[in-house]
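Give me the fold.
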Amino acid sequence: MADNNIRSEDERHEEGKGKSWIGIVIRFIVAAVVLMVTAAVTPGFSSMGFGTALLAALIIAALDFVIQKLFKIDATPFGRGLSGFILSAVIIYLSQFLVPGMRINILGAVIAALVIGIVDALIPAHVF
């Protein structure tokens, strides 16, 4: 009986592997749409097209990954309280130097980190 439970967990794990790429693509598309909407409603954040927003989402995710691996700090807006929120705003601000067509000031980055953090709290990444 225990073997049946183990097999079913393994099978579910294998099924999850096939869906993981789709989940990653969906997360980046959702992140790009959130960035586009955030850019449209946030003062100090230039509006951007879908391609620019998708590239920005990739760059922001890459910067977040590097910071997490190097410094062992969770850079999500609500991941580590105020420090995670500020770090998220800094990552968003710095990403403008790597993404052509993206312009944002410090206040816009702080507001964007807040909006993105709220969306992330409402729609967690593990849903996809």
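Confidence is low (pLDDT under 50) at residues 1-5, 7-18.
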